[in-house]
Amino acid sequence: MQYLWAFLIGGALCAIAQILIDKCKLTPARILVIYVVSGVILTLIGVYEPLVKFAGAGATVPLTGFGYSLAKGAMKGVSEHGLYGIFTGGLTGTAAGITAAIVFGFLVALIFKPREKK
């Protein structure tokens, strides 16, 4: 049942983003920012944590999950290091995901030949 909820919640978040792309004049970059900031805000007001516990990867994998990770890292950093933790906690909380994106992007760039779209 957990897989079903992860699929439905993650799919709903992605469907909302697709609707924004199709119906609004927002660029994908702006939607990305909206999703990350929404994840941070929803985490700070306590709404996103129950969704993560309920949907698991369906809530943590989309871009709102990145905002969630940033906010949780910043909160942990503040509790451990005080005001300095605001600046270091978010990066510490998301370091694994950022590193994976860089490494896998590099590997794909080595394997495939880049070309322009036609």
Architecture overview:
The chain is 82% helix and 0% strand. It is globular. The protein has one domain (2-111). The chain has six helices and no strands. The protein is mainly α and 118 residues long. Helix 5 packs across helix 6 (85-111). The chain has helices spanning 2-23, 28-44, 48-55, 57-60, 63-81, 85-111.
Keywords:
118 residues; mainly alpha; 82% helix; globular
Write the layout of secondary structure elements.
Layout (H helix, E strand, L loop, with lengths): L1 H22 L4 H17 L3 H8 L1 H4 L2 H19 L3 H27 L7
Helix pairs in contact: 2-5, 5-6
Quick structural overview:
The protein is mainly α.
Report the oligomer: single chain
* Beta-strand residue fraction: under 5%
Number of helices: 6
Total beta strand runs: 0
Main pleated-sheet profile:
none
* Distance N to C terminus: 43 Å
Q: Uncertain spans, ≥5 residues at pLDDT below 50?
A: none
Number of domains: 1
pLDDT averaged residue by residue? 90
Rg, alpha carbons: 16 Å
